[in-house]
Amino acid sequence: MDKNEDRTIKNKVREKIQGVSMLPFGLIAGFAGEKEIRIIELAENGFTFRTAEKIADPELFRVCFYHYPKLEYEQVELHSYTLECSGEYEFYYEYTLYLDHIKNKDIMWDSHFIDDNDSAEFIEYRKQVQYLLGWYDRYIRMKLLGDSEELASFMTAYPEGGDVVTARDFEEQKKAWFFRETKEIHRDEKEVEAEKAKKTVQDAKQKLKTGLEVGSESPVSEYTLELDNPWLYEEYLSKDLTTFMENYWKRNYLSGHWLSDHFPQRLYIGNSFCHLLFPKEDQLFQLLEKARKESLQVTLTFSYIREFMLENTGQLIEKLENWCEENKVILEIQVNDWAMAEMLKGKSLLVPALGILLNKRRKDPRLHYKTGTMEQIGADADKYLSENNLNADFYREYLKKEYGIVRYEWESCGYDMTLPPGKNSLHLPFYQTNTSQYCTLYAKCMTGERGKQKLAEECPKFCKDYAFLYPDHLIMIGRYNSLFALDSRIFEDGSGSGTGTEIGTKIKTEKILKEWKKAGVDRLVVNLLDSGVKR
Asked: Which of 291-295, 332-336, 411-415 is predicted with the least confidence, judged by mean pLDDT?
């Protein structure tokens, strides 16, 4: 057979492959023996693939098809096929595998002939190809012709018609989340309940003053409140602690909630996500002095540290250390940038804790739409979500040895976490999902477009009056330079915002707090993103 005849015959065979090319990598995977191959064209009667090197004719090909509803791969083994090297290029080789029942031996190269016992694997292969290409075609058509909401409803359990925002502003949104008619105490109308609530707060405060161990009768050892913006700093400085706490719970519609019965033993001061919300230096030391006089411990929260902030931050650290020496106190520092961890080395009066921005994990209120329920994707997925790098012993040892970090800051993010040994602080009820140093709220207020972002070294604090609202079912808010979602499991009649079976359940507050303590939480940090905010 001369070369021209050989080329003609090969072209006739090659014409049999009329498949779909450029499929996403994650949808299909292939193996020639034990060697992984990249499938670049898929058809019912075969496929084309690439390899970096020439391959010998393997005894077995395996093709793995991603099965969308099952969220897993299904494998088909191919033992009988025709294999052709269809192209040689500078950096790779291209092969085509045919599954047609070709009986003309004159046009076979490296062939494995089909018998009746092989028909089952071809039937299964074609079935998998048809299914994969079918739902991928529907996805492409929805992507081109539908809107994002229709696509999300088609691909996930995302509710159709769910992108509705009914709240007019953050105040109305908070009321929808927190207000409970049977529990809310209207102090103007119910003086008896008001006096009872006030007495509860005063009793808790007296216990702290007399040294009674509050944690001994509570599910968690230490209760703390986070002050994370200038208007809270100002209010705290202008009022006594009892009045401040009463107002805090009242304006957030939680006066009657179990949490409001507990007086804080510690304050978190500062913002993990925006450097512009950290108190000014003179205000900071006023806050520290007031907290010291009220017998409150303090954790200072620093955000990321940009290059232009290094010198000033270093100078502030020195002043804080001097203040601690003068007043014989120890300050805890929540570290959200490794530069801060380096600055704190050797400073025994400034104790570092691993902050939220450095303690990374997957957090998303849409998680159960993306992955399905936990029963659907299995116990392994639950395990993968519940753990992060802090569950590795060697990493915790490194943090302790290198930086002296033995406390870790966590967020209640809608699903159960496997907490590591050590000191664990749990922030609730909101958890951060996204943060940008190039603030979208600043861009929206300054330019009218969220996309025109730039670093703001100075800011008029638009976040005092404005926030981004999101569809009701997501239970989330755009606050400061970040997005936050609400884990409503802390509210006994809340719907829950977690994954899987947690949705729609009623979990009593004290019960879940005891579960957290059993899991390793020794400190609760409450932050209601408080301020009167308009849309």
From this structure: 411-415
